[in-house]
Amino acid sequence: MKDYKDIAPIKVGDKAPLFTLKNQRGEKISLKNFLGKQNVLLIFYPGDNTPGCTKQLCAIRDDFSQFQSKDTVVFGINQADPDSHQKFIDNYQFPFDLLIDTDRQISAKYKAMKFMFGHPSILRSVVLINPEGKIIFLKRGLPENKEILAALNNH
User: Which residues of 105-126 are buried (b: 16+ CB within 10 A; e: fewer)?
Assistant: First the structure.
């Protein structure tokens, strides 16, 4: 894997890096398919069925209708395999797809990487991309949904 430190940082206002990843059903999801049409909310998270990640994605699930009303499609992203993603979806009835970033290359492009105990891990990150492909919200950690929705209201 390319050293994540060599990748240029991203910030609000930047053009979002393009990606194509498979979802839990093996379907290819490409950012370019949403450009000109919808907002895209990406939630990079370290692990399926872990306490912090479950809390974060369940909060998005609980407010999903608000994101839909703002014409926003939601994707969770980490390196887990399709079976793990499907179990996570089934356990918590997520109404959105989870994307598989096996080699963490897309996570690295979004600077959603860190090293824990000498091993690369996904850094919890929330990225909101408008239909023009620009990043309109970027926050590490667990931002509240109202912060994300406020960014949608302001654009």
Answer: bbbbbbbbbbeeeeebbbbbbb
Provide the CATH number for the domain formed by 17-153 in this structure.
Answer: 3.40.30.10
pLDDT at 20: 98
Q: How far apart are CA 63 and CA 150, in angstroms?
A: 13
Indicate which residue of 29, 53, 106, 149 is catalytic: 53
Does residue 58 have an active-site annotation?
no
- CA 101 from chain center: how many Å? 10
Give the residue ranges of the chain where pLDDT is below 70. Answer: 1-8
Structural domain boundaries in the chain: 17-153
Give the predicted TM-score (pTM) of the model: 0.93
Q: At residue 94, what are phi and psi to the nearest 5 degrees?
A: -70, 135
